[in-house]
Structure prediction request, 123 residues.
Amino acid sequence: MKFVILTFSGAAGVISRYLFDGWIHQVFGLQFPIGTLFVNVSGCLAIGFLGTLADERSLLSPDVRLALILGFLGAFTTYSSFAYETWTMLRNSEFLFAALNILGSLVIGFAGLFLGVFLARLM
Prediction:
């Protein structure tokens, strides 16, 4: 049942991301990836709000949490998941892990991107 929840909520998140990103680009018409910025910021706002309701107030059932946080928002923007997981580490005083997550995601993520570009250009 969890896979069904994730499938449909994830699909809704991906479609919402595509539509929201496109709408923002239409409205602002900038070369800057403002749609991605709006998606990431709104996803972080939503995951912070819903995560707090789930974790601190127990207002979301496990299935609703799975659908909204992991499924919908996870597909809407993985950045929101990254931000929320890092926040959880900071909240739990796991400062080293939080720093490693931030640096690893940014530095190693970009290194992976550059390596992928390099490897593709070898072909």
Observations:
- The CA atoms of residues 51 and 71 lie 13 Å apart.
- Residues 2-77 form one domain.
- The two ends are 42 Å apart (CA to CA).
